[in-house]
Amino acid sequence: MSISLEKIEYELSFLVKACGCKIVRVALTKSGKSQTLQVMIEKLDETPATMKDCENVGRALSVKLDILDPIREHYSLEVSSTGLDRPLVKPDDFKRFRGKNVVVKTYVLKDGRKTFKGILESATDDGISLRSVAQLQDGFEEVDLQYSEISSAHIDGFLDYKKGDSLREQKNKSRIKGS
Length: 179
Hints:
five-stranded antiparallel sheet; single chain
């Protein structure tokens, strides 16, 4: 049986939640003849998942995926944390990370470009507004994008780290709390 990634995410989400995490993204990548089902997770409190979290979720998902058998061909399972360059997938992700430096790629050219780097100014249920990090001759460049135009987006962890407002700092703070 072969089912969509959305269906796989739905089927796995309950089990991931039982492990104290939530799914950020599910992707199927191919390299040559091998395939990898990537499941990116974060903790329910929206902090990055630890290596232990990834191991626990991976063991639980392996069993569930053996039962579901959602992909006909041979594949490997990879469970990972979001990292500094956390992907923005759903409208709620964009809303949550307003004010952060992001990199957004579009399916087609928009204003002569497909890649936009800037500060995520706003996010609605329909789309986002970005302000360029670099000042142009006529001021800061702003661009509005609908979610249907966005092929991929992620936090620019390096820029946020340089600002002193990084996910890495948030992760370190959560480690100190847990100690």
